[in-house]
Amino acid sequence: MSTATPALSVLDLVPVRAGQTSAQAVAASLALVTRADELGFRRYWFAEHHNMPAVASTTPPVLAAASAARTSRIRLGSGGVMLPNHSPLVVAEQFAALEALAPGRIDLGLGRAPGSDPVITQLLRQSGTTSDVDRFPDHVRDIVSLVSPEGASVRFTSGGTYDVHATPAAATVPEVWLLGSSDYSAQLAASVGLPYVFANHFSGQGLERALDLYRSAYRPSEAHPEPRTFLTANVLAAPTDAEAEERVLPNLRMTARLRTNRPLIPLETVEQSLAGAADFEGLGDSFMDSARANWFVGTPDAVATRLREFASTHGVDEIMVSPIAGSYDGEPMDASPGRLQTLDLLAAELGLA
User: Fold this and answer.
1) For strand 152-155 and strand 161-164, is the pairing parallel, antiparallel, or unpaired?
2) Is 121 helix (H, G, I), strand (E, B) or coil?
């Protein structure tokens, strides 16, 4: 089995910790994407989640635009835009504009999940232009056409056509990816000939089946004659195992809150997590143990070894890390030392250029 070094990318939810403002959380993530660009990471994607106390990544195109102004090489995009929340034309226009801002560096990752609870989904439908989730495959195809230089055509029932372009004169186009954690997304990506990413950082359930479905059923497209995929993973590297195990606690406890339907709160600091160690006895502890088993946490050499093996096992040449290091009391609010440390240590260990 080959254990070649995979390329590394970053998935960012723009975490908000206790006492931190949204502005400070965004500033910390912009510092992180700047550092990822310097270190040689391949791409940097922002997630879309709504109305969560610990997540400030609500609008990937806005965050990608801010990142484009601070970087020169790294690819930027969405991981992903939750398409049912938006008009396909608006999404196409936003990412065509991003591509004009940073030609050759924009990825448009599309997902079918809402990225929110039912109340937020209803608010989005009432207050803005959304799309029918049942027409997701059609809307994906529409976006691919709209961002192309040729554009798309609307055919009237009375006869004739009307041309539509996401931008007047595209020279380059964003690369469209389909994202998901189910058989559905893998099969759709294969049928339309698009790159595909399995959201392994959620749970990892169904990973091998999804990749097999995608690769075995892939229909080549002009832009993508071969199937193309990478994997996501929750990752934390620290100089010592002791520090790694402390910095992972806030995100483990957030996972337990989500799985046990407890009220969500801003991400705890390490000290707050240690002080509340008895909060999740029983089922909560079980969820934390299960999550921890699938995360990549430890010293840089140990994490790098596991990442190489993970990439080799599943036949991918890239892993998108979601850096999950929590913060200690007293660390700067407008920075994320633990997440920066993870990127620095992995880049050094894996020899990124």
Assistant:
1) antiparallel
2) helix
**Whole-angstrom distance, CA of residue 18 vs CA of residue 337:** 15
Count of other CB atoms within 10 angstroms of residue 286: 14
> Residues with Cβ < 8 Å from 79, sequence gap 6 or more?
11, 45, 46, 47, 60, 109, 179, 197, 232, 320
d(CA 108, CA 172): 13
| pLDDT tens digits along 258-305 | 888 899 999 999 999 999 977 877 777 888 998 999 999 999 999 999
- The answer to whether 88 and 143 are in contact (CB under 8 A) is yes
Q: Give the DSSP H or E segment for 82.
A: strand 75-82
Question: What is the rounded average pLDDT of the residues 249-256?
Answer: 94
Angle at which helices 283-294 and 249-259 cross, to 10°? 120
Note whether 328 and 15 are within 8 A (CB). Answer: no
Placement of tokens 């892939």 in the chain? 218
Mutual angle of helices 337-350 and 22-39, in 10-degree steps? 10
Contacts with 314 (C-beta within 8 Å, 6 or more apart), sequence order? 207, 208, 211, 231
CA 132 from centroid of its chain's CA atoms:
23
The residues facing 163 across adjacent strands are: 153
Name the 3-class secondary structure at 196. strand
Q: Could you tell me if 253 and 280 are in contact, meaning their C-beta atoms sit under 8 angstroms apart?
A: yes
